[in-house]
Amino acid sequence: MTMASETLVRVRSENGVTTITLNHPERRNSLSMAMLEALSDVFTRIAGDDETRVVVLAAAGNVFCAGHDLREMREQFGSHDFQLRLFQQCSKVMQQIVNLPKPVIARVAGVATAAGCQLVASCDLAVAEQGARFATPGVNIGLFCSTPMVALSRNVTRKHAMEMLLTGELIDAARAEQMGLINRAVEAEALDETVYRMAATIAGKSGHTLRIGKEAFYRQLEMPLDQAYDYTAGVMAGNVQANDAQEGISAFLDKRDPTWKHE
User: What is the residue range of the signal peptide feature (predicted)?
Assistant: First the structure.
């Protein structure tokens, strides 16, 4: 990572949990090209880091992420090439999260709007403080949230997604939990405890098993029912051959704790 990237994104690792923090609060942690490139670099590095088993995505300041940097976009109004590269880079980062062989938990404090809401929806799990707010408000400024729609529509029902996309209105954390955009809405003082307890629970599992399971989850979602069962039957049969699966089954039958080798 460059010095600029390290300024925009902070990374801290402990006990198998790596926390990635968006660190540009003065610009509401907006997804500028530089921020997106920094995030992409971090996810690329973490994908090959055997010590990391769970990722927490957080943000500095009182806004989780306000979406794309509109000032940057306005400066480039005359460049269709830049706008296309910006949205393609954003799409790349969102897919990196989904394809990352580690679970990603969004820790949401403050507002997550437009591509910021997309960022939350792209994570595998999300926990938000009760004061958090979410929206896809592009329609309010004449720019429909078409790329955020991809992640949003894969996490909530069609009518809930369309309501957010067509009205552009903010919803609170309780409503976001009810819709399935986030897993839990908690008191602000309980946010870190909840997030890192969840992360620690997951980090205590076999990293190899988590990698297999996350990949299979997203792949089977796009398949017809019969193909999904055929695919996952093969996944499980292969999973049984792994050292950790055999250790876990034996430990359960022997009434002892498993010792994972993450392979």
Answer: none
